[in-house]
Amino acid sequence: MVICLIVCGPAHAEPPKTRLLARQHFDIQAADPLLAKATENILIEARLKAQLMLSDTVDSRISVHIAESREQFDKLTRGGLPDWGVGCAIPTKNMIVIISPNAAEYRQPFKEIVRHEWAHIALRHRLGNSYLPRFLDEGFAMHFANQWNNSFAVTLAKAQVFGSIFTLQSIDRVNFFNASQAQIAYAQSYQAVAYFLSEYGSGSFRILLDGLRDGIPLDSAFEAAIGASFGTFQREYSLYVQSNYSWLLILSDMWLIWIGLALLIVVGYLVKKKRARDTYKRWEEEEKYESTDFDYEEGDPWD
Q1: Which three-class secondary structure string do you get for 118-161?
Q2: Is the pLDDT of residue 30 over 50?
Q3: Crossing angle for the helix pair 179-213 and 33-54, to the nearest 10 degrees
């Protein structure tokens, strides 16, 4: 494939030109018009959902850029993101930048990435310039985009079992984490927000956001929302993770590996048996032609 691209491709290929899809609430710039239209549909749905969840409407016009390469993505984001990122929301500029799925290998669907970045825009609009813990920001975005999957569950279980869990506030530094650490941090963030919503409800979540928007300390905001400090919430959440993410989850994820190994052993046995059978058959044929024994009838066979 590489040779074909070198031989057949143009010597100096020009990057595809972006086109602008201007709508009431979005300006979408993308080289692929079909991808731009799909992005618009995702954003329309996401905008309405965020409005219901947060009791807030993003009235600002949002600029969405679909980058055709990592280089273009870095240029638009000024190179301030880790190499594992494929999307970025810049609320201060009302801007979202996402690498095109045509140019990057996504671990998750493009739709989820778009919804995730829109959640950041909507949540920041709800809070203004007030401090927003990164675990709440990322956890809400993941929850909003329905990004939880078995890979995140196993990641969280391994982190729990091997003692590589982060404190929730240390996730503020996630942009300095490597890809493996970031996977753990995102899994923790999702579960922290999911646990909060499950135990205390969306109304309490909005009260928490109101407290943060008004600039009150994190402990006080949690007290107002759930009647307990942030430290108490973190201990509750830690116990929840310990109870639900253990060796059992890791082992249950390995059943496919064990099945694969078993199939490999069976196939190997069958192949070995067939080779042995073919070898014996070949030996029999060779012996037939190389034998010096004759079944004599009457008389000398050389007569």
Answers
A1: HHHHHHHHHHCCCCCCHHHHHHHHHHHCCCCCHHHHHHHHHHHH
A2: yes
A3: 50
Least confident segment among 107-111, 188-192, 250-254: 250-254
Helix H segments across 1-109?
A: 2-8, 33-54, 70-76
Q: How many other C-beta atoms are found inside a 10 Å radius of the C-beta of residue 120? A: 21
**Nearest CA to 195 among 186, 185, 205?**
205
The three-class DSSP label of residue 89 is strand
Domains of the chain: 15-129 (3.40.30.160), 130-245 (no CATH)
Judge contact between 100 and 133, C-beta under 8 A: no
Nearest Cα to Cα of residue 119 among 52, 34, 166, 219: 52
Joined together, the tokens standing for residue 226 give 């759930």
Contact 245, 157 (CB under 8 A): yes
Cα 228–229–231 angle (5° rounding)? 125
The reported pLDDT for the residue numbered 269 is: 63
pLDDT at 26 over 90: yes
How confident is the model over 131-168, as pLDDT tens digits? 999 999 999 999 999 999 988 999 999 999 999 999 99
| Interacting residues of 3 by C-beta distance below 8 A, sequence separation 6+ | none
In the predicted structure, residue 271 carries a pLDDT above the cut 60: yes
- Which residue is it, tokens 């046995």? 269
Closest among 213, 204, 220, 141 to 174, alpha carbons compared: 141
Provide the angle, in degrees to the nearest 10, between the axes of the packed helices 110-127 and 33-54: 40
* pLDDT of 15: 52
Q: Report whether pLDDT(300) > 70.
A: no
